[in-house]
């Protein structure tokens, strides 16, 4: 048996997986982020440990015999967060998370430096780890001076589980300290960020062994001696392992809190100016690229909150897919990444009319999110990515209207997987299977069974192409407003 442990922003999820990759059971434990000032987002790493322990204990209570057969634990987690340890291994301050925007000035400063984009393969976004440390050096210099090691969130859990310090390529690629093409820490990037190589965790591939589980934890959790902890992957890389997106042409679109359009790549093909992320994959010798929008289902949840109506009810009122509505929604509620790299931008409704209804607002929101994902698809194609079809995952795919709309806006067939456990936690377990057994990732990380394929509506392709062009033209006009 194998365990996948996924540390998200809102909770920790653990899945117990059979040797054939099928999921026996899962358990979750919730988390909350603190926002002490506008634009700040932090979590106490001690709460990650408590949540992970609770999820693992729940599995042990429900399936004690299966837990006695566990051979490996794989990890996945939220990217970019900065966990700071002093020389004694004490956490110096709450972890600064991926969605924390306080270091936007430092990010712009690093991004403008020579060689930074070339080496990292990416724009330096405010959410990345390097600008967070530069901010700390300037605003919390006493704490910064005590930093002995910087860990990423899931790697803090690995340290708790094993006592070993390390990270892996897919997570390290989101720090802006890694030479993503060479898959090694960059002395140049570390220097301009005010860091040293000895402050960096050791690098492994995602299938690499971190070390054995601590005996005291094994006893507490009902696990056998000698369970190996495998490095795992960053959340989207692990999710790709969970849905079998490993090779050129494989990809998925995720309608989650944020929106992701993911393309697996067989080589390193960065295009930082497009605001496409180019990162190492969690499997050796592979990379991936993704366009990211910051508010996908978050936009719908925002509308649900201000109307007092549940999101599922809002989308259920939409009826059958028809021509685009006259209203436009720009989903930049928290700024935007791909393709604009604009942390300051905010959202808008355009062409509001007194005759419009709540349903018109909902239609505009789901159209706006879909148009923003089309921007990401265009940016990915500009790097040479070829995506003939996409797997559609995430909570937003429960809306048939939204999936049909998105297929039409993207002009691609969308495959809906059968119901079941998949994604980052399953991907982490699959990485553990490969790490412990030496199995070929392509044999383990297969696509899920497809329940249905939603094709683009041929009769609406032209109308939605024009609507997307109008949407894309709105950004510079909105940006110009005071």
TrEMBL record:
Domain called Carbohydrate kinase FGGY N-terminal: residue spans: 1-242
Residues forming the catalytic site: 235
UniProt entry tagged with the keyword Cell inner membrane: no
Domain of life of the source: Bacteria
Domain Carbohydrate kinase FGGY C-terminal residue range list: 252-433
Gene3D superfamilies registered for this protein in UniProt: 3.30.420.40
InterPro entries (UniProt xref): ATPase_NBD, Carb_kinase_FGGY, Carb_kinase_FGGY_CS, FGGY_C, FGGY_Carb_Kinase, FGGY_N, Xylulokinase
Residues binding substrate: 79-80
GO molecular function: D-xylulokinase activity
Keyword Kinase attached: yes
Pfam families xrefs: FGGY_C (PF02782), FGGY_N (PF00370)
UniProt feature coiled coil, ranges: none
EC number(s) per entry: 2.7.1.17
Keyword line: ATP-binding, Carbohydrate metabolism, Kinase, Nucleotide-binding, Transferase, Xylose metabolism
Its job: Catalyzes the phosphorylation of D-xylulose to D-xylulose 5-phosphate.
Record protein name field: Xylulose kinase
Protein's organism: Ruegeria marisflavi
């Amino acid at each position: 048996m194998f365990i996948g442990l996924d540390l998200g922003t809102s909770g920790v999820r653990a899945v117990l997986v059979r040797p054939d990759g099928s999921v026996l059971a899962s358990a979750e434990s919730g988390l909350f982020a603190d926002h002490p000032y506008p634009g700040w987002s932090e979590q106490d790493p001690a709460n990650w440990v408590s949540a992970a322990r609770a999820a693992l204990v729940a599995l042990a209570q429900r399936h004690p015999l299966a837990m006695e057969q566990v051979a490996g634990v794989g990890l996945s987690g939220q990217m970019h967060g900065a966990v700071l340890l002093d020389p004694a291994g004490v956490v110096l301050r709450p972890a600064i998370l991926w969605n924390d925007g306080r270091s936007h000035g430092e990010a712009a400063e690093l991004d403008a430096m020579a060689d930074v984009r070339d080496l990292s393969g990416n724009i330096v976004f405010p959410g990345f780890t390097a600008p967070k440390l530069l901010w700390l050096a300037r605003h919390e210099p006493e704490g910064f001076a005590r930093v002995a090691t910087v860990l990423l969130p899931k790697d803090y859990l690995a340290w708790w589980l094993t006592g070993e310090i390390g990270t892996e390529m897919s997570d390290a690629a989101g720090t802006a300290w890694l030479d993503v093409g060479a898959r090694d820490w960059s002395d140049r990037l570390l220097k301009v960020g005010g860091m040293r190589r000895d402050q960096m965790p050791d690098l492994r591939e995602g299938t690499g062994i971190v070390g054995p589980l601590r005996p005291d934890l094994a006893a507490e959790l009902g696990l056998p001696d000698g369970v190996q902890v495998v490095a795992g992957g960053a959340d989207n890389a692990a999710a790709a392992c969970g849905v079998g997106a490993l090779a050129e042409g494989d990809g998925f679109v995720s309608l989650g809190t944020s929106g992701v359009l993911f393309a697996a790549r067989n080589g390193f093909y960065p295009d930082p100016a497009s605001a496409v992320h180019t990162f190492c994959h969690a499997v050796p010798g592979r990379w991936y690229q993704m366009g990211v929008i910051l508010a996908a289902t978050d936009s719908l949840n925002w509308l649900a909150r201000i109307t007092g109506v549940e999101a599922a009810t809002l989308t259920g009122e939409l009826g059958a897919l028809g021509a685009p509505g006259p209203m436009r929604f720009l989903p930049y509620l928290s700024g935007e990444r791909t393709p604009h790299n604009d942390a300051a931008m905010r959202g808008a409704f355009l062409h509001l009319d007194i005759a419009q209804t709540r349903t018109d607002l909902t239609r505009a929101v789901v159209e706006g999110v879909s148009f923003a994902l089309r921007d990401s698809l265009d940016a990915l194609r500009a790097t040479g990515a070829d995506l003939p079809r996409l797997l559609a995952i995430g909570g937003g795919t429960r809306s048939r209207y939204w999936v049909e709309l998105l297929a039409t806006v993207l002009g691609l067939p969308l495959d809906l997987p059968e119901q079941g456990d998949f994604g980052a936690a399953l991907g982490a377990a699959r990485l553990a299977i490969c790490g412990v057994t030496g199995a070929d990732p392509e044999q383990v990380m297969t696509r899920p069974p497809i329940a249905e394929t939603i094709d683009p509506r041929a009769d609406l392709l032209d109308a939605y192409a024009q609507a997307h062009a109008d949407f894309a033209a709105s950004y510079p006009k909105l940006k110009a407003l005071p």
